[in-house]
Design brief:
By secondary structure, the chain is of the alpha/beta class. It has nine helices and 20 strands. Helix 2 crosses helix 3 and helix 7 crosses helix 8.
């Protein structure tokens, strides 16, 4: 728990907490259950005790807004080729030593949050800029729960989809409220042992598995998973086999899995980068386990980035990094050769955003 007592930012009331007998309050949003004294904040840094109530200190503030390809989230089976307006805030409710976005997720500086926007402003901007969806990303949207939901509600009124990029570390009640407003999610399945989560992330595996099962079995949210493979930590054949078999058994074979390359960062600067061969090995293990759609990330591999029919092997969607190079799905998302359905959320024609990356000033939409 963080003990900083400097002035709070833009505060917003929250729902998931309760008072303790010793004057502290306990946050009930995520499995950490931080117990927080007056003027303190939880480990996430953005939820704190002010006047005996738990408040969100970053409502309406962001580290910046960007339009990029939806494939970068990564989502390969949700509106391929379309642009997505992406933003995050600061802080995180896990403490991953290998964090690749540590400058945002580990930030303790309110100056990180230089951009401000009301929920309807974000929705109007997405609509005006031709974005089919908005992503809550860069740091975990679980910790800015109230702001993300309000933005998603405003987006839904305008026909804009909402995408959560998350570690899935959240308690059941707030989870249900949050995903009522989400249309898709990429869930970070960081490893497949509790020891890995405890030692390198400061958390536990089971709540993440519970979130994935909940999303698959109790919601209509489209889900894909991402695993950052770290040499010597979560990349053994045994762990990958156990993970991929679990996905097929509990989530089904049609949930796409992404295996991404680690690069030395944050507190793991002495760990070597992931070799491309490790990613292709993980993908092969997933396919052998029965996963129908397995992809690699953070390396250039058009073959392993592309989507193939699980019935006959026909190329359905070609990809080169974030650029679509082929589109062979029928208008009802089937293989043109054998008629096998390709699971996902597809439109008759893909988007043509390509690999562009565009910063946006939402002040222009106030």
């Amino acid at each position: 728990m963080d003990s900083q007592t400097e002035a709070f930012g833009d505060v917003w009331p929250t729902l998931y907490w309760h008072a303790l007998d010793d004057g502290r309050i306990e946050c009930d949003l995520c499995p950490r259950h931080c117990r927080i004294r007056e003027g303190q904040r939880g480990l996430c840094f953005v939820r704190g005790n002010q006047g005996g109530k738990l408040v969100l200190t970053t409502y309406g503030r962001s580290s910046g807004y960007v339009i990029d390809p939806i494939e970068k989230k990564p989502l390969n089976h949700f509106l391929p080729g379309t642009p997505i307006l992406s933003f995050g805030t600061a802080g995180c409710n896990l403490s991953c030593k290998f964090c690749q976005n540590w400058d945002i997720s580990k930030s303790r500086q309110m100056d990180t949050l230089m951009d401000r926007a009301a929920p309807d402003t974000i929705a109007r901007a997405a609509e005006a800029l031709g974005c089919r969806s908005v992503a809550y990303t860069y740091n975990d949207p679980v910790i800015f729960h109230e702001y993300a939901i309000d933005v998603a509600r405003a987006c839904r009124e305008r026909g804009i989809k909402s995408v959560a990029v998350t570690a899935g570390y959240v308690e059941p009640e707030p989870r249900a409220e949050f995903y009522r407003w989400m249309d898709a999610a990429n869930v970070d399945l960081k490893g497949f042992t509790d020891a890995f989560y405890h030692r390198l992330c400061g958390g536990h595996l089971q709540p993440v598995l519970d979130t994935l099962v909940y999303l698959k079995k109790e919601t209509a949210v489209w889900i894909e998973t991402t695993t950052l493979l770290i040499p010597g930590e979560n990349d053994s054949d045994e762990e990958l086999e156990a993970m991929t078999r679990w996905v097929v058994k509990e989530l089904g074979p049609d949930v796409p899995m992404h295996f991404s390359a680690f690069h030395p960062d944050w507190k793991m600067l002495d760990t070597p980068a992931t070799r491309p061969a490790t990613l292709t090995r993980a993908r092969a293990i997933a396919l052998r386990s029965g996963v129908r759609y397995a992809y690699v990330g953070n390396v250039h591999n058009p073959t392993a980035d592309s989507t193939y029919c699980h019935g006959c092997g026909e190329l359905l969607i070609g990809r080169d990094w974030y650029r679509l190079t082929a589109w062979n799905l029928t208008t009802d998302a089937r293989c043109p050769r054998c008629g096998t359905a390709c699971d996902g959320v597809f439109e008759a024609q893909p988007g043509n955003w390509g690999a562009r990356y565009q910063r946006v000033r939402l002040a222009d939409f106030h």
